[in-house]
Amino acid sequence: MRNRRTALAVLALTAALVSFTAACSTGSEDDGVDEPSAMSEATPERRTFDPSPAVEPGSEAAATLEQTTRKRVGALKIGLISVREGTASLSITGPGIEKRSPLVRKGAKGDVITLDNGITIAIDEVRAGRKSEDDPAPAGGSGSAVDLTVTQPE
To answer: Which of 64, 66, 62, 91 is nearest to 149 (CA)?
Structure first.
């Protein structure tokens, strides 16, 4: 009796699976419906985001970065890692820089960082945050920021 129940359950399950597969079928090539696939609509000409925007040679772009933030400045993505004793630590990615291994460069107010690709980063101002309102000594905590100017090569 047990084998008969098992056989009926397998038969019912198989029938349900066949019915489900038929119901979910989207048709075949000879069903008379000529619809383009969803992937055919995605073309490189229809991008909504340009991962490497065109930047004019010799152009300058200024930005203010707060600690632990990243911004696109010109052709680069720059992040402020920390500020310690008037020196900013920057994380830099962009043309000619391995995306998985960003450059880390340090600089103080007035320093100019020149990258191998010819782009320069001038550090205009470095502001250290405070640990608390009562702490007069600069700390690398909240409120740290850097003003910089990125210049493209000619």
So the answer is: 62
Q: How far is CA 135 from the centre of its chain?
A: 36
Q: How do 87-93 and 129-130 pair as beta strands?
A: unpaired
**CA nearest neighbour of 91 among 60, 124, 61, 115:** 115
Please, what is the end-to-end C-alpha distance for the chain in angstroms? 88
Q: What CA–CA distances, in Å, run from 48 to 45, 51, 73, 110? A: 9, 10, 19, 38
77's tokens: 């993505």
Which among 80, 108, 82, 109 has a CA at the least distance from the CA of 92?
Answer: 80
pTM of this structure: 0.60
Each of the 154 residues of the chain gets a pLDDT tens digit; together they read 567 778 777 777 777 766 666 665 555 555 555 555 554 555 555 555 555 556 788 889 999 999 888 999 988 999 999 999 999 999 999 888 887 889 999 999 999 999 998 999 999 999 987 655 665 544 445 689 999 999 999 8
Full DSSP string of 7-73: HHHHHHHHHHHHHHHHHH----TTSS-----GGGG--GGG-S--SS----TT-EEEEEEEBT-EEEE
